[in-house]
Amino acid sequence: MEGLEVERAGIQLNERGRGIAVNEHMRTNVEHIYAIGDVTNIMQLAHVASHQGITAIDGILGESGGMHYTAIPNVIFTSPEIASVGLLEDECKQQGMDYSVSKVSFASNGKALTMNEPEGFIKLIRDNRSQKIVGGSIIGPDASSLISTLTLAIANELTEQQITHTVFAHPTTGEVIHEAAFGLSIGALHQA
Ligand SMILES: Cc1cc2nc3c(=O)[nH]c(=O)nc-3n(C[C@H](O)[C@H](O)[C@H](O)COP(=O)(O)OP(=O)(O)OC[C@H]3O[C@@H](n4cnc5c(N)ncnc54)[C@H](O)[C@@H]3O)c2cc1C
Fold first, then answer.
1. 81 and 33 within one domain
2. 32 in a domain, yes or no?
3. In ligand 1, which atom is closest to the CA atom of 39?
4. Structural domain count, the chain
5. Residue located nearest, by CA, to atom 28 of ligand 1
6. Of the residues 26, 30, 90, 142, which has the maximum number of CB atoms within 10 A of its CB?
7. In the chain, % of residues over pLDDT 70
8. 145: domain CATH number?
9. Using one digit for the tens of pLDDT, what is the confidence trace for 3-48?
């Protein structure tokens, strides 16, 4: 942002003055100028910047829909990997939500055992009123890839039942998602 002097083009900054203010279609207050990515200072992640670009083009082409930030995955590329999407349990508490949590260990996952990576877990959070999955965290093997499945579930407001009614391939680390969804109803099938 430094040196850009966007104000000279009449472009407004956000309320913190540290990013270009945009609407959900990534349009600035100047009708023909759009902004995406880190300069908007909404979420400084490459996949957010990329999706904001797609959203801006959709808006320019007159497509409906806009940018939403409820299902943006976060990944920490450590060993083991850590990933989360949607609400954290603390945020559910702050919102006064009636929620349930299911936690399943990778120690009960056949693929994780064959990879010799049994450490870690998945945690799923369900809004009990809507039955929808609203948050998930994964620490363990393939967490950076598995979070995409949870992102798909949360972005499309899937319920725990829609996940348990889906067939997951065996043996895969992805089965922890299936197990955790069962944990929200009849109980995880293979929990150690
Ligand atoms: C160390 C590090 C690690 C990161 N790791 C991850 C990660 O693992 N996953 C993830 O999702 N995100 C990660 N990020 C964040 C990610 O890199 C950014 O969110 C993303 O690059 C933003 O894309 P952008 O196009 O908005 O900005 P940029 O990628 O910064 O692109 C802006 C471009 O504009 C150019 N530019 C600047 N000023 C001018 C000017 N006046 N005139 C012309 N050109 C100009 C710059 O040279 C640059 O090429 C990381 C960032 C850092 C710094």
1. no
2. yes
3. 26
4. 2
5. 38
6. 26
7. 99
8. 3.30.390.30
9. 888 989 999 999 888 899 999 999 999 999 999 999 999 999 999 9
Q: Which of 61, 83, 88, 69 is nearest to 24 (CA)?
A: 69
Which residue's CA is minimally distant from atom 35 of ligand 1? 1
8 Å CB contact between 36 and 58 = no
Please count the other Cβ atoms lying within 10 Å of the Cβ belonging to residue 136: 29
Domain that holds residue 54: 6-60
- For 51, list phi and psi in degrees, rounded to 5: -70, -35
Q: Is 190 part of a structural domain of the chain?
A: no
Residues in the ligand 1 pocket, defined by CB under 6 Å: 4, 37-38, 44-47, 49
Residue 90 lies in a domain: yes
> Residues with catalytic annotation?
170
Residue 21 DSSP label: -
Token duo for residue 14: 């956000």
Whether 154 is covered by a domain: the verdict is yes
